Amino acid sequence: MTRDPPRLLPCGDTAFTIEFGTRIDAGANARVLALDAALAERGWPGLLETVPTYRSLTVHLDPLRADPAELGRAVLALAAEALAPVPSRRLWRIPVVYGGDFGIDLEAVAAHHGLAPEAVIERHSAPEYRVAMIGFLPGYAYLEGLDPGLALSRRPSPRPLTPAGTVSIGGAQALVASIAAPSGWHLLGRTPEKTFVPGREPVFLLQPGDRVLFVPTPPERWDVLAAAAEAGEPVAELCEA
Amino acid sequence: MNARLHVIRLTGAASLQDAGRRGFLRYGLSASGPMDPLAHAAANRLVGNGPGAAAIELGLAGARLRVEGGAVRLALAGAPSVLRLDGEIIAGHRSFVVREGSELEIERPREGVFASLAAGGGFAVPPVMGSRSLHQRAALGGLDGQPLREGDRLPLAPFPPGGAAEQALDPVPLEREAPIRVVLGPQDDLFSEAGLATFLSQDFTVSNRADRMGYQLDGPEIAHGPGGFNIVSDATVAGSVQVPGSGRPIVLLADRQTTGGYPKIATVISADLRRIAQRRPGERLRFAPVDLETATRLARAQGALLAGLAARLRPVAGVAERLMSANLAGEAVDALRAGD
């Protein structure tokens, strides 16, 4: 396997990005998570936070305690090493009610690909995904692993508000949304699970690197599961290996 | 029961902000915190607080506030506003005591956008995830996860007893004329030469779509390169200048989205975040490139300025000012005349 050398991209005086690729790619994401883990283990004076994404790691620093150029070069050198991949120990089984009012774009996505809605559900719930990035809004989990046969570019105009718990696809990405927000993605379903609850421990359910399986769930189960989630009970199942 | 600050009237945006909520960028939560950290720290220092205590941040806002259930020491710093205590004009960038039942009127600022109103001892609202800063999109922090509204009663920490002298600070200039300095990147290579030239040489105007999340700018369109304007989402920082397909740049700020799928042509240096935040809708600005070394030097200079605020406090000593602080300005003038 050929590996492109990582690139150091400046983000002003308080951050820099180490970029491993420009496309969605499991290999690039594995290198991102390996660098993230190596930095967490090693620590660095003035290094504040790291943000893993599909293809890059952004490092935030305090320019009063670290020299941004120097720290950037040091982290780039570390990124160029063959870092040990980080095993993803946590696997979540997340219940999803597909179609109807829960996923208003299921039929359109099916029609676009010339598939039956059931086939879209099957293909969407078949793979084991990996949380490649949590971003945009708190707890929004961007997944890697979507069946390429389902990929579909975003809607021409975003919807002003999509519900909390929305499970959607945009381009080659799959997403579990936490809170209600505007979105230009295609809504396939919803999960009653809450991935972001201030005051709960943990506040954020999912972490970058976690594995995710979607479990198709009949709409009749929604009320029971939603009530449980509202009461703070977990409705997604965590298997640690 | 502690004293409270009762919001009688409010026009514009206002929220509680402290130094910000750190450590959650990897979970999609931006730090929030003051749009003008120097103004925020100055207001806090004036009332004897640490620089990162929670204060009310007013954004192009006017307000009338009544102190209930006790006295409080207050100070306003940042965008200059006319202040009236029970109808009498008082100076900004200095502390003053407001007695129970008194009303403070803050006019919409004459220039700039953000002003911070600090209270001695701070505001007694519980921190959420380590911070009292409001993050409005996440409905987190502040007073019950909401911006300030008319009718709110903000609980104040106990007013420290004793008659500490009132303090004053020279206002930190808003520096609204000079260009906003940027470091190019992370994705400047995704723009055409003409696009980069447009960005660095033309005037832009702050649009009406400007809030704590970011400022969208009007002006000439910035041309992308042949690769187009979509990237696989990566992380944003405070100051990221992202350019969507419209070619109209958006400067991302304190409450921004933590990741985005548009290329970022440049990053506003940390020392100039407060300067762009203080530009109003309709005001022009220009960008000027600096290298990373310069940006770092300027960040450290601003850090030193912030750390040195406490040492630059000066007790309000003049007779007129002292009497004014006791809200007896009218008598003070008479007393001075009598002394001629």
Automatic annotation (TrEMBL), chain A:
Keywords: ATP-binding, Hydrolase, Nucleotide-binding. Residues 6-206 form the Carboxyltransferase domain. Gene3D superfamilies: 3.30.1360.40, Cyclophilin-like. One of its GO terms (molecular function) is hydrolase activity. It holds the Pfam family CT_C_D. This is Allophanate hydrolase.
